[in-house]
Specification:
alpha+beta, 4-stranded antiparallel β-sheet, 4 strands
């Protein structure tokens, strides 16, 4: 096709969206509803994943130094720990600070008793190590045990394993639900587009009867599909955004009381818009092309039946 033909057919695509606005609106509403369901489910699982990430950050390994470790040995320990892979953060906890925190958890009389009994601090210096990937938790602990001047290591292996299992389970559930919603969306959208194309079968037949090629007939429908997909994606994003902010406002006090914080929608708005528009274009264009195949081979058949 020439440039002038592409320009003409593009205009036809835009014109057809308006001319067949009721069917276009129906297609947009169906596709938009499916995208809203997918987007809502995605934001729920992203928040669950964020919550698990925060819990994982609290699952630290305490590495205690030997009682007589010097400042040089402690510095050497820290250097060796940081060289170990899968370490997100290393924080030094002096025995003085740890003892003050311990006394703070006691009652006033009990804390005074321990202070009067002895001035010696019964706790060692330690390093609070945050593990980056819990899948490698056991290997990381084994490496920490090999560090010089380490007395004991306190870790919660059971919690780490449970967190890994929960994260894997949530990931599988999220993928399955989004995939099912996507398949349902394709089914509903394909049937909606089938009705749209069926209502315009006479138009297709006339174009074929006067010698239009299949590509010439398809092009306006491709443009229509792209327009419907883009509009559906943008509107769906706005609806998901609005529903998400409404939910946060409604449950804000509850989240604060549980010391939880919802993720910001703005961090995912652009990626979600891109995905929505891509899904919309694929569904709109793909559905139109697949549904049109049966009519492109019926040159003039609908005219003869009129």
């Amino acid at each position: 096709m020439t440039g002038s033909s592409i320009k003409y057919l593009t205009k036809e695509g835009f014109r057809n969206v308006w001319t067949n606005r009721m069917m276009s609106l129906a297609s947009i509403c169906v596709l938009m509803s499916c995208l809203v369901l997918i987007g809502t489910a995605s934001m729920i699982f992203l928040n669950i994943d964020s919550l698990l990430a925060r819990i994982e950050e609290e699952n630290v390994v305490m590495v205690y130094a030997v009682d007589d470790a010097t400042d040089e040995q402690l510095a050497e320990m820290e250097s060796e720990i940081k060289k170990i892979g899968n370490i997100q953060k290393v924080e030094f906890v002096s025995k003085e600070v740890a003892w003050e925190e311990q006394l703070g958890t006691m009652g006033k009389a009990e804390a005074e008793f321990f202070k009067d009994v002895s001035n010696d601090i019964p706790l060692p210096d330690a390093y609070k190590v945050t593990v980056e990937n819990l899948d490698m938790f056991d290997q990381t602990v084994d490496e920490l045990n090999k560090v010089d001047h380490v007395d004991i290591i306190r870790e919660n292996k059971d919690l780490a394993q449970k967190l890994v299992s929960i994260r894997q389970g949530i990931t599988v559930i999220a993928i399955v639900i989004v995939a099912v919603l996507f398949l349902i969306s394709l089914f509903i959208i394909s049937n909606t587009i089938r009705l749209t194309v069926y209502s315009r079968r006479l138009e297709i037949s006339i174009m074929k009867s006067v010698g239009a090629t299949n590509n010439f007939v398809r092009f306006p429908f491709v443009i229509e599909g792209m327009i419907l997909g883009i509009v559906s994606g943008v509107v769906a994003l706005g609806l998901v955004w609005g529903l998400y902010e409404l939910a946060i406002n409604q449950f804000g006090d509850l989240l604060s009381s549980l010391n939880l914080k919802a993720i910001a929608f703005t961090d995912y708005a652009l990626p979600m818009l891109g995905i929505f528009v891509l899904i919309g274009i694929v569904c709109g264009v793909g559905g139109s092309l697949v549904t049109m195949r049966k009519y492109l081979n019926k040159e003039g058949s609908e005219i003869s039946n009129v």
